[in-house]
Amino acid sequence: xxxxxxxxxxxxxxxxxxxxxxxxxxxxxxxxxxxxxxxxxxxxxxxxxxxxxxxxxxxxxxxxxxxxxxxxxxxxxxxxxxxxxxxxxxxxxxxxxxxxxxxxxxxxxxxxxxxxxxxxxxxxxxxxxxxxxxxxxxxxxxxxxxxxxxxxx
Length: 153
What we know:
By secondary structure, the protein is mainly alpha-helical. The protein is built from 6 helices and 2 strands; from the N terminus they run H-H-H-H-E-E-H-H. It has a single domain, classed as Winged helix-like DNA-binding domain superfamily/Winged helix DNA-binding domain (Arc Repressor Mutant, subunit A), CATH 1.10.10. Helix 2 (44-55) packs across helix 5.
């Protein structure tokens, strides 16, 4: 009597467990941020734009798209929506009227502050219990991963 052969799962490549842990953490962070931002009537993309304009007022739409990992057309749609809410202003550049500089309005600054508070709470919860050395290690590893992935593009 022979025993039936069972299907074997092919071995996973080195690093798969780590990749899955990173993906899970990212997805949980994204879901948590999405739920909390929704309480303010915001989406992740809105938050990214507001947060970026808080720290980099006067950047161009093209610069914003690059910083937020969004296409120029995607940023254009987001900006139109945020402008309609009275949170973002596009102004002609003093030296080149074809270039539009982006800034937050007073109302935009208020909603951005609330949005950034949520981000701060989520990040604080994420790193609770981690030492500075552990955080530095993770930062260095992920920066290296990012550089290698950029090279694949």
